[in-house]
Design a protein that fits this description.
Layout lengths: L2 H20 L11 E6 L2 E6 H23 L5 H32 L1 E2 L9 E2 L6 H33 L3
Antiparallel strand pairs: 1-2, 3-4
Helix pairs in contact: 1-2, 2-3, 3-4
């Protein structure tokens, strides 16, 4: 079995596993299913497709992270797939961070009565620890992405150099 067919099987198998983790009953229903989160006085409704994408990115990240470590950064295809999945995870976490930051600012502003004054920010918002934790994870992911890309480029140069 060639390495490309093996990687296609790993990629499709990981996709099937991520879907089975997300929807173990195989309902295949993204249209009418939403996920409802109730936090204190707030009620969030999230489309299930976005939760499926997050679940898939996490499963792909775990599988290809372990495969990258097992191969010790020697398999070029695994490194490229892993760096692309890490990039997707960074972008997805960035969107989540923007949403949480907007909620922190929105929940902490006082607009009325001082219409002519600046916005008053309230301290100790309940989402600040979550924001700080996700921001730390984002920074670690970016540093790790740079390391993986560096290792992948060095392996590619070694394979393409004439000996």
């Amino acid at each position: 079995m060639t390495s490309r067919i093996k990687e296609i099987i790993w990629f499709l198998g990981t996709g099937i596993v991520s879907y089975l983790i997300f929807d173990p009953y195989l309902t295949f229903n993204f249209k009418d299913s939403d996920i409802d989160i109730n936090l204190n006085d707030n009620y969030f409704v999230i489309d299930s497709f976005y939760v499926f994408i997050l679940c898939s990115i996490i499963v792909y990240f775990i599988v290809y992270f372990s495969r990258t470590l097992i191969h010790k950064f020697k398999n070029l295809t695994v490194n490229v797939i892993f760096s692309l999945i890490t990039l997707l995870k960074i972008m997805y976490f960035y969107g989540i961070l923007k949403m949480i930051n907007a909620y922190i600012e929105m929940a902490g502003k006082t607009i009325y009565p001082p219409l002519s004054g600046p916005n008053v920010m309230h301290e100790n918002n309940q989402f600040e620890p979550l924001y700080n934790t996700l921001l730390l994870i984002e920074v670690v992911l970016i540093i790790f992405e740079i390391f993986v890309v560096y290792k992948t480029i060095s392996i590619y140069r070694d394979k393409t150099s004439i000996k």
